[in-house]
Write a structure and sequence with these properties.
heterodimer, A: OB fold (Dihydrolipoamide Acetyltransferase, E2P), 2 domains, five-stranded antiparallel sheet, 8 helices, 19 strands, B: MetI-like fold
Amino acid sequence: MSQLVIENVSKEFGALKVLQSCHLAVEKGQVVTLLGPSGCGKTTLLRSIAGFLQPDDGRILVNGTDISHLPPNRRDVGYVFQNYALFPHLTIRDNIAYGLTIRRRPREEIRRRVDEALSLIALSAFADRFPKQLSGGQQQRVAIARSLVLEPEVLLLDEPFNALDAQLRLSMQIELRKLIDRVGITSIFVTHDQQEAMTLSDRIAIMRGGRIEQLGAPLDIYDRPRTDFVADFIGRANLLPTEVAGGRTRSPQPIATELPDGPATLVARPENIEIVTGDAVGWSGMIGFSTALGPVIEYEIDCGLREPIRAAIPRQAGRAPLEPGTRVTARVRDEAAAVLLPGRGAQGGTAHG
Amino acid sequence: MVDATLMAPRRRRFSLASFLDGGGFWPAVPAVLYLAVFMVAPIVTLLAFGFVTIDRGTVGEGGFTLAHMAGVLSDPLVWRLMWRSFWIAVVSTTLTLVFAYPVAYAYGHLKGIARTLLLVAIISPLLTSALVRTYAWIVVLGGRRGLLNQTLLSLGIVDQPLQLLNTSTAVVIGMTQIHLPFMILPLLAVLSERDRRFEEASLNLGASEVSTFFRVVVPMSMPAIVAGFALVFAVSYTNFIIPQLLGGGNYSTLAVQVYEQTIVVLDWSRGAALATLLLSTCFLFVFAIVALGNCFTRWNEVRR
């Protein structure tokens, strides 16, 4: 049985449908990320699980028990706020002890468990400081410890890395994932940063317009996006409009597919595009803008489509990058790795990071 | 010889150039001049009156004297009145806080027209003078035909009219109502702007709404509570109109004594000596309130 089940949860604010029958089941110890652009409903879903919001419809179950109608203080669910919401008038020790004090645990037990939590986040030396005296990363750890010390069934984290500077983020993400694995707690993250989602998650739920558009393991979603939106949101993708006829696309480079005849979108990652100088089967065009990123060079190839085709080419030592204006042919390197989606999609043809 | 570096602490030297240049100071000049002429000078003059003998509006024989100060300080009546001023101020300020806090808290939970109406209700008493409102309390609390007694008698709640006017109770009631806006406004500023996520965090950690209020909302508004308390205490402690009108002819506080000595008895020197005592003790009490408050708001002062 899944530890956390979200069943058919919907929520409307006036005419705006912020959540439309969302389904999600999370196994014990798993880390799931709700990923999507702002306004996609990911935070609303997280707040519904915590009980800060009452969904209009649907159920939320923890270990098989319906908690949908419990007030937030009677749900066994930890919540880490975007800005951590550490109580400024309490010391770090008292912040972590807050939930235990509320539960009227014996003083000795509170002391022991807070000490354990402090050493878990390696902040024992800061126990008597106030939150203001800590850095953003330290505050984040305190906020997590404050929830974990109560040993909740599920930990919810609302964009916990937003308040940190970019340099710190990646290392904090890895640290946090290690901490979660050590404690073994079921966690749900909310983020709009796909890199963060890839780093942290066992599974990612991509949300758009109040719906979960695709749910799967990070690489699974990356390799097999089900919609052009997902393809574009996880990683970067060239979305090339095409037609399917008789099991093949009618693109300059025909690709085999099982899709029925009709309009389709070809999804090809920039690293799955190769550039051939001279004549070849593929999209012929001209090198436009290029960016040398170090290990790879990214080219924009203008092929007369709505958007240039992007190609990420590993750099070869001793070879100069292609000059802008060079006539080339862009090809899909590995046809099996290209994905074909039926229809032109809402985003037909756009490709951006 | 003493080492020069030890003698000279690292202090910024005063330089005329940086003073003339020092942007931040100049915009304050009109206000500083105004206060110097219309507040500091009169107060210094007033306090100085307490240390000379005034005879028919001019400074009399003898020059500087501590006799008036000594006379005031050795008068047990003065100490009793000061004690009364203090207690009236403490009780009415505490009541003000108790009444003001829920209003300021509720304000943060209201939206739209209800919020605007509440704000109007809070501020509108300030549009009439405190004197008028004090007279209004005479109408409400006064004798058998006062509004309150008429209502209580006609409802059969009491058989005899309550003796409220000309008691400490009347003074406390009047002061509490008249000073209410001064307590509500600083609280409102802090409570209506507060970040609700702290309360959500508290609920999430298992606290009820009630314990969230007392463990998170109230402590976090402590700076505003201290500010409001100090402000209302100061105006209550030094107010002479309310005790005089609602306390009746025989009722006196330290502030009322200042008024009577100066205007009725025309003993300006004693009046000034009493004013000196009133002002300095007021400072002392306010300082004590702020110092006590700092114990609860230490978290607000810390720096990284």
